Amino acid sequence: MEHSIFSWGITTFLLGTFGIGVWASKQIKGDSVNFLVAGRGLTLPLAAATLMAQSVDSNATLGNTDLSAEFGFWAGAALPIGLSLCLFLTGTFLAKPMNRMGLLTIPDFYRVKYGRMVELLAACIMSLSFSFLLAGNLVAGGFMFQTFLGMSYVGGITLLAALVLAYTVSGGLFAVAYTDAIQVVIALVGSIGLLFYLLTNFGLEIAPGTGPLALEQLTSVGAGAAINWASILALGLGNMVAIDFMARIFAAESPETAQNACYSASAGTLIVGIPFSIIALSANSILDQAGVVAEGPILFAILQNVVPPVLGLLVLAAILSASLSTADGAILGTSSVLAHNVFNIRHSTAHASAHAGGGDQLLKVTRLLAVVITLLGIFLGLRVPQTGVLLLLGFDLGFAGLVVPLLGGLFWSRATRQGALACIVLGSVTRLIFFALMPTMFGVDNTLLYIPNDLFTVDFDGFPTLISPLVGLIAFAVVSNMTYKPLVGEREQAKVREKVKAL
Question: Which end of the chain is more exposed for a tag (fewer CB within 10 A), N or C?
Answer without folding.
Answer: N
